[in-house]
Amino acid sequence: LCVPPCKRYITSGDTHSMCVVCLGAEHAMSALEGADCPHCELLPLRVLRSRKALFEEGAFSSVPQGAGPASAGAERALHSWGSQMDLLEGMETGDPLSSSLPGRSGACSEGSEARTAATSSQGTGSSLHLSSSEEGDLESAVEEPLPQSPQYEELLEVVTRAVQKLNIDWPAEEKAAPQKSKLDERFLRSKPPPPTRSLPFFPDLHTEISRSWGRPFSARLFVPASDYYSNVVGLDERAYKAMPRVEQTLASYLSPGVASSLKAPTLPSKPLRTTSALVGKGYAAAGQAGACLHTMSVLQAYQADLLKGLAEGEKVDLEELQRTADLALRVTKETARAVGRSMAAMVAAERHLWLTLSDMKEKDRVFLLDAPLQPSGLFGDAVDSVVSRYQEARKQAAAFQSLGGCWASSYREVQKLSVATRAPPSRDRGSRHSRPGSSKARPDLR
């Protein structure tokens, strides 16, 4: 149930302590704009859209009947951010919000919430089933695209000014014209989708990210410069530095011949161990980027507080603000490099998976694993190099084979010539069938 005096039921799976109506329309709209609500983050996107659509249709626009400050308090609570204290103080004497509301959507929402709560005592399975069906009903209530978010508009305005200041290339995107259909409406106006534009590509950041793309297989994982910003307290306990190891019991069950109680569990074959090492390398690099984000967040929050104090007229050290900005830029560089190392390790792992399908030499295998990362393909131009190597090797093998054939034929000719020029042995006529290598002569039987 919702907070008294409201008698509405809260949908199964919703961790809010208040129902949709008591949370208000602003809460439903802010949840889709990225507001920091831990309860809304657990809900699917279709549920958040459905909740916003219920308020847009006017199902909950009317305030429960009442007189005096109670009705005003209920109205404020209905359209507030969702403060529980304001709701309790403003609706102590008012009528419950679960009174009959006009409109189809209100009755549908109230009935669905009541059905969900009434059947929740029958078991977890039925409750989950009704919850999913309710989400489907709420999702079908809205099919129109969402209006453009104010946060997105503000982002575009600031980014536009930043692009002009930094002189960054931001080409306009060519959008295809919408295809007309004979099934389009003739008289009713349909809302067009909100215009969106891809944000600009920052070449300087890409330079930092792609630093390790030249040799993705042999690139160093730990760089001393990045350790200054990624050395954060508690990284080992929170699995930032390395991927968690497999449990000993599960390893003994999956691979009993390799698992040992004295050593850490390992995979049975070398290709599997190489793949695991590359994936672990990418995970560790991503953990370094996450650790750098902790340092960057502290600096940016501190910088925001300094700017806030400066705007409020407080005395702020300008040099401190400048140092904070430069340190944040340094952490941004190290974060980008760590992300690039993680991407390079993932590419090397994917290459290794494909190379395990061939019987290639180890030298060529390492050459392909360490080939520069290119967007055109997984192996890039290294494929042509390896193919040319194979063709050259085949030509050499064919040449050796032909030379070997010539040597064999010349050797046979020499043997024939030596036999032809050799004087025949002196033997009787009857001994022509004797073996040439035998030392004993057969007796004359005439």
From TrEMBL:
Biased amino acid composition, Low complexity: 116-133
Residue numbers spanned by region Disordered: 90-149, 174-202, 418-446
Domain of life according to the entry: Eukaryota
Gene3D superfamilies per the UniProt record, alphabetical: 1.10.287.3160
Skewed-composition ranges (Basic and acidic residues): 174-188
Protein name per UniProt: Uncharacterized protein
Organism name: Cirrhinus mrigala (Mrigala)
